[in-house]
Amino acid sequence: MHGAREQIAKTILTWEGITAHPHRFGGTEFRLGQREIGHIHGDTLVDIPFPKKVRDEIVAAGRAEPHHVLPRSGWISFHLRQPADVEQAISLLRQSFELALKQRSRRKTSPGTSAKEPA
Question: Could you give the count of Cα atoms lying within 13 Å of 103 in the half-sphere of its Cβ?
């Protein structure tokens, strides 16, 4: 899907705290602090980490597929095949972002923890 990577990056980089970095297996990785919320390979594939339970719900609902290399992990893969897929990928990345924000907030407010970024 020509232009998908650029369209997705343009949207995601407007979210507070999100930065883009080269991904170790190619493509662009998006992070909130040190935590990856997902990455995109060219204009065709988005991989996103979730807690296993959330990943299972997403896959069961038909919103994405198990990760193309690590199918038993919490990661999902989403293929970009048509224009509507860009919005769906952004929605999935937003879900990962919101989970990361919640986790970050819990770590900052838990007794005995510091206000450091999650590792």
Answer: 17
